[in-house]
Write a structure and sequence with these properties.
By secondary structure, this protein is α/β, with parallel strands linked by helices. Bound molecules: 5-S-methyl-1-O-phosphono-5-thio-D-ribulose.
Length: about 325
């Protein structure tokens, strides 16, 4: 079934006076929506990964503010709580800035409509990203992706998975290699689930198999999302992405980042300035209540890494593909 305007799953559902968020921690075993009626709750939901993925986090934050506007409470605590929820995905701060500008120009009564507009625009943006990216996908491509940059990570359609969906919709027979994405398993739990639902052929691998498959000539194309792209094109995405980009260079495999303009942070000159979230040790020492590492071990958990722009074949945006992104080309994206 074509998904262009009807994503199989909705990460967020606005119900007029409350927000329902699909609990992505429970996927794929359970499909459960959690109700939120204030910004503080939404901030907790973002921090706890009920909702995740850069554009979806931005949309959720906008709805969080809308909820507090409806409650008629002061909005500064909401801005503060939401801004403190997760540090790396710049879409969160982009959405908060946009809501703040709307509040200043049109008052709190305008915030529900603005949140809905942010959500709807994100779907349209992802569809454009999908179409531009699909043009780069060779017929029959075996496409590797990392983490989940799908409908679940956005308002719908997805960025990296949007490219794959659009390639399929354009009649290309694509297959997908989904990296499981340790430690939080977004690839195994979320990407594999989205693709299985839509009958797009997908093979799940653990992250350490990626190099072997590339060396054997079994990967034609790589596309991933991003959480923050610096002004020069360096791109932060889920931990493990940088490794893939280095491998892709070695094996001459096209490596694309698919991301909306709202993911580009022109205030940061390069990727070394992108804040990298450090998440809890529990997500590394075990999963789902099962612990496999010994008590007392030290743990590092950087949740994102930065891929330098010179390893990126192209940045796929809603305004087209920026080949070999650099500061000047990215500035031009914003000029028109
Ligand atoms: O920690 P997560 O699951 O929020 O990380 C998500 C990613 O790294 C995605 O690739 C990125 O946000 C792009 S989503 C379209």
């Amino acid at each position: 079934m074509s998904s262009e305007n009807s994503p199989q799953v909705s990460s967020l559902r606005w119900r007029g006076d409350r927000l329902e968020m699909l609990d992505q921690r429970k996927l794929p075993s359970e499909i459960v929506y959690v109700d939120y009626s204030d910004a503080a709750g939404v901030a907790d939901g973002i921090r706890d990964m009920v909702v995740r993925g850069a554009p979806a986090i931005g949309c959720a934050a906008a709805f969080g503010l809308a909820l507090d506007a409806l409650r008629g409470v002061p909005l500064e605590p909401a801005f503060k709580a939401l801004a403190a929820s997760r540090p790396t995905a710049v879409n969160l701060f982009w959405a908060l800035d946009r809501m703040r500008a709307k509040l200043a120009s049109s008052g709190p009564q305008s915030l529900v409509a603005e949140a809905i507009a942010i959500f709807e625009e994100d779907i349209a943006t992802c569809i454009l990203i999908g179409r531009f990216g699909a043009e780069r996908v060779p017929e029959g491509a075996r496409i590797m992706t990392h983490c989940n940059a799908g409908a679940l990570a956005t308002a719908g359609h997805g960025t990296a998975l949007g490219v794959i969906r659009s390639a399929r919709d354009a009649g290309k027979r694509v297959t997908v290699i989904a990296n499981e994405t340790r430690p939080y398993l977004q690839g195994a739990r979320l990407t594999a689930w989205e693709l299985v639902q839509e009958a797009i052929p997908v093979t799940l691998i653990s992250d350490n198999m990626a190099g072997h498959l590339m060396q054997r000539g079994q990967v034609d194309f790589i596309v991933v999302g991003a959480d923050r792209v610096a002004a020069n094109g360096d791109a932060a995405n889920k931990i493990g992405t940088y490794t893939l980009a280095v491998l892709a260079e070695r094996h001459r495999i096209p490596f694309y980042i698919a991301a909306p303009l709202s993911t580009i942070d022109r205030g940061l000159a390069d990727g070394s300035l992108i804040p990298i979230e450090e998440r809890s040790a529990d997500e590394v020492t075990g999963f789902g209540g099962v612990r496999w590492a010994p008590q007392g071990v030290r743990v590092a958990h950087p949740a994102f890494d930065v891929t330098p722009a010179d390893l990126i074949t192209g940045l796929i945006t809603e305004k087209g593909v920026v080949d070999r992104p650099d500061t000047a080309k990215i500035a031009r994206l914003f000029a028109t």
